[in-house]
Give the backbone structure.
Amino acid sequence: MPGLLLGDVFPNFEAETTCGRVKLHEYLGDSWGILFSHPRDYTPVCTTELGRVARLSGEFSKRGVKLIALSIDSLEDHCGWSKDILAYNCEKSECCKLPYPIIADSKRELAVALGMLDPDEKDKDGLPLTARCVFVIGTDKRLKLSLLYPATTGRSFDEILRVVDSLQLTAEKRVATPADWKPGECVMVPPNMPEEEAATLFPAGVFSKELPSGKKYLRYTPDPR
Amino acid sequence: MPGLLLGDVFPNFEAETTCGRVKLHEYLGDSWGILFSHPRDYTPVCTTELGRVARLSGEFSKRGVKLIALSIDSLEDHCGWSKDILAYNCEKSECCKLPYPIIADSKRELAVALGMLDPDEKDKDGLPLTARCVFVIGTDKRLKLSLLYPATTGRSFDEILRVVDSLQLTAEKRVATPADWKPGECVMVPPNMPEEEAATLFPAGVFSKELPSGKKYLRYTPDPR
């Protein structure tokens, strides 16, 4: 069965996009990357999603994240549809073109290789469309996190920004982020880090909770950023 | 490569859990299901996550969703650790035991079969731990949505409730939910539904947006629930 697992090197595919032919690893360079797919151009949920990503593109570039979209539609449709997305979602003055390329995977090669199809959504020839996938790719070109949503369910781009913040913080500092964490909130100290090391690494303080097991693993420290 | 795609029937595995031996499809019955994995018992982020799920269990059962957790730890560890989760996360009066079973996948059989391992996190023998996976399973036992987060990044359970609301609404009514949708907000009318049919199905009204392409696919209607 196709699909990508955490830690897999993301395939360095070459594809036609609205910004010319792109080779993924070269396009990403030293940046983080997000490849996200949508089912079909000229459809409603996709328009709300790609517009939201356009509006958030400043937030992604602040974090050094390069975006690239994908569906099985043609370049021609991508270009025509982009005008709809911009007209509906953006102030004309700030966006006169979408701030990310869209891959035209019209032969479904990437969709199949990356396990992105949604069998419940078919085109007029009965072929499945792409689902709403998100792949977050680290600077080492490895898969760090993925989402697989069906065509019926638009994604939360606040959640995608939240996980990028967590992935980047935890790649840089030896901490992990708890359930429902947001930037600025306390983070967790790894359970295998000795107390003395934690005290040195986290001068703002390490706070541990008493637990029935008597084990001292539930240790917090303020967001070190 | 292992892994599950949208629309795949979820394997009807049998496993040891903190509530006895469970066969997945029988455990789920006619309910929706969420199988979620965590890296390791007695670790900090996992304690915040499983506690949050315990606190939210009323929200999941209101929606007819059965929960089941999984890690590669032993039943003995699951039972000991459950006391820590409850002591830290719940009011004693409301939870005297975790409101969902935890699978002991100590041989990593399910973790491998379902593509749940995180190669960056290893136990003392160098074997990889489970990642933070979420599989949302429909009443037809098919995969509807999945998340794959690494050990460092705790999940957002508000997002998980949000997608359950969308999946259930869109399974019941012929609508889809836009980017960042929350229950009560407008939903989208499918692009292939004729205008007259939409008018009959959605008596609260269908509102469409003018777009440069002149196509009439961006149609909203109030949440029909």
User: Anything to note?
Assistant: The helical segments of chain B are 24-28, 44-55, 57-62, 75-89, 109-113, 157-172, 195-201. The two ends of chain B are 40 Å apart (CA to CA). DSSP finds seven helices and twelve strands in chain B.
